[in-house]
Amino acid sequence: MRLSDLRGRTVAVWGAGREGRAAVTAIAAHGPADLVAVDDSANFLTLPWEGPLAAAAPLVTGEEGFARLAAADVVVRSPGVPQTHPWLVELRRRGATVTQGTALWMADHGARTVGVTGSKGKSTTSSLISHLLTAVGRPNVFGGNIGVPTLDLPEAELYVLELSSYQCSDLTDSPRIAVVTSLFPEHLDAHGGEREYYRDKLNLLAYGPNTVVVNGGDPRLLVELGDRAAVRAGTADSVNVAGGPDGTPWFHRVDRPLFPRAVLPLVGRHNEGNLCVALAVLDALGVDLVDSKDTLAVAVAEFQGLAHRLTEIVDPSGLTFVDDTLATSPYAAIHAIDAYDGRPLTVIVGGNDRGVDYSPLREHLAERELTVIGIPDSGPRIIEALDGLPKVRTELVDDLTDAVRLARQLTPAGGVVLLSPAAPSYGRFRNFEHRSEVFAQAIRTTP
After folding, report:
1. 104-302 sits in which CATH class?
2. Which of 220, 348, 383, 447 has the fewest CB within 10 Å, making it most exposed?
3. Do residues 181 and 163 touch, judged by C-beta distance below 8 A?
């Protein structure tokens, strides 16, 4: 379904945030017979609905909203509306036509789009793709799940989109190049279960992309992919990391060396995999990686890691504090812990408790020696899951500031204090930025 298909139809936009506002503006320009906006979660944080928005679509709040959604020919939901929302479940039971702004946009722009999703790595990988394309003279517009709704993007010859599982779920067109960086259970409360989450995530691939690029080292992703044709980055047949001319690890295109691993400023093997995927995408777009290797090496060296993802804060004490507050699952925390293998390590975990299974974290730490400090709300349950591991010291404290104070006492000189909470921030913090601010303030002020 395209935006132009909404002409002359009754449309209800569900959500009054950035995505909903962008949808109302875009749809109004295509002449619907009737347009209304619905917000079932209005609160003191809700932005005013006034001016051109109110003129284009009156805003309905509260229980009346469902009646307006049910009466519409097409419902355009914001990504934040979960699949498990009772209204959405009932609308689907009735056979209502439900879509999203990203799906409407993709119908018109998919042939010019690289779409990147994944349980972890989608932000870094999509940023790398956009950055490297610009470096080799391929201008592009970067958007999606980074705060810029697709319906607000300017016209361009090439787009690189970071796409969440929520955005992927309603697509009926795939991008030209569909990219998946990793797959593990995440956001299960919003999708309804593990199978449903994988289904929604991999819907990105369901409508005939020209090329599929995946992380060939991700076991769950490879199981779900099956025998589907795809570029498996990280393997010997694609972009990979292997011994180079000087005996150190190098990035290669198949067997052709490109540049040393040391050029990439991001720590962790998962970030090696992210760059392999990004380079494989450039290869699929016709960029000659071997001829462009020097330009690419400079661009990789200049790449700035994303804030709140393994962001290192060097402290006068000699400890290295690491802000990885966006690691909101046990699998993300596992990747972060692996990035500091071989160094004395204290990990701070805990946040909003969504009932996630922490047994994978226990299995991963079975032979590791480190300290884990738990903070509310899920910290006690994580610590309980790690109980009995012979080399893992566990502690519980009341808040993040106390965790930093205790970490200073327990972490040996030259060690790492890693905030990789394996849980979301909301509940105790306004958002993940607020959690990072508290962490940084604690580093500055605790003795």
Report:
1. alpha beta
2. 447
3. no
Phi and psi, residue 14, nearest 5°: -100, 105
Rg (CA), the chain: 23
pTM (two decimals): 0.83
Tell me the residue ranges of DSSP E strands in 289-357.
311-314, 320-323, 345-349
Helices vs strands, H then E, count in the chain:
17, 20
Cα(79)–Cα(284) distance, rounded to whole angstroms? Answer: 29
Kindly report the length of the chain. Answer: 447
At 218, the pLDDT band (50, 70, 90 cuts) reads very high
Binding residues for ATP: 118-124
Vertex 366: Cα angle to 361 and 372 (nearest 5): 60
Side-by-side strand order, sheet with 177-180: 141-144, 159-162, 113-117, 177-180, 211-215, 231-233
Q: Where in the chain is the domain with CATH 3.90.190.20?
A: 311-445
Q: Report the pLDDT averaged over residues 273-290.
A: 98
Per-residue CA distances from 293 to 160, 257, 284, 423 (Å): 21, 9, 15, 39
408 near 446, Cβ under 8 Å? yes
Q: Which ranges in the chain are annotated with CATH 3.40.50.720?
A: 3-99
Tell me what pLDDT residue 424 has: 86
Q: Model confidence over 369-417: pLDDT tens digits?
A: 999 999 999 999 999 999 999 999 999 999 999 999 999 999 999 999 9
Phi, psi of 395 (to 5 degrees): -140, 155
H or E segment at 26? helix 18-28
Q: What is the pLDDT of residues 13-40, one digit of tens each?
A: 999 988 999 999 999 999 999 999 999 8
Bridge-based pairing state of the strands 416-419 and 320-323: parallel
**Other beta carbons less than 10 A from residue 414's beta carbon:** 11
Architecture of domain 311-445: Alpha-Beta Complex (3.90)
Segment 7-13 mean pLDDT: 98
Q: Quote the CA–CA distance of 383 and 396 in Å, as a whole number.
A: 8
Of the candidates 418, 417, 371, the residue with the CA atom closest to the CA atom of residue 392 = 371
Could you give the residue range(s) of every CATH 3.40.1190.10 domain in the chain?
104-302
For domain 3-99, the CATH class is alpha beta
